[in-house]
Amino acid sequence: MLGFITSIYTISSLLLTVGITCVVMGGLTIFAMTTKRDFTTGLMPYLFAGVLTLLLFGLLLMIFHPKGSSYWYAVYGGLGALVFSAYIVFDTQLICGRGEHLGMDFTIDDYVIAALSIYLDVINLFL
Prior knowledge:
One of its GO terms (cellular component) is membrane. The chain crosses the membrane at residues 6-31, 43-64, 70-90. There is one protein chain. The protein is mostly helical. It has one domain. Helices cover 73% and strands 0% of the residues. It is built from five helices and no strands. The chain has helices spanning 2-6, 11-34, 44-64, 69-95, 111-126.
């Protein structure tokens, strides 16, 4: 799916998007590892609600296709970037062991699931 979507755009716009995604990912990772605030407590329902909101908003955009839709697609993209940025912080803190009080942290044996989680966060942020 990612290959099909990226085949539509020019090389320069793709490189710009990859660069922005790398900078945002690096900044959010550093923030998640150095902040004193624990984002693993109580954030899960809000992240789930954010993804459901994005899903419903995207379906509404596809069905109704409103006038001035470029504005609404920009709002949709901004909300998606915000939600998946929060997911990056959340998953990074789970990998660092901040969710152990909830029983949600990743252990040594969960490295594949942890890597897949971060991978999906980055891909969704890129899209």
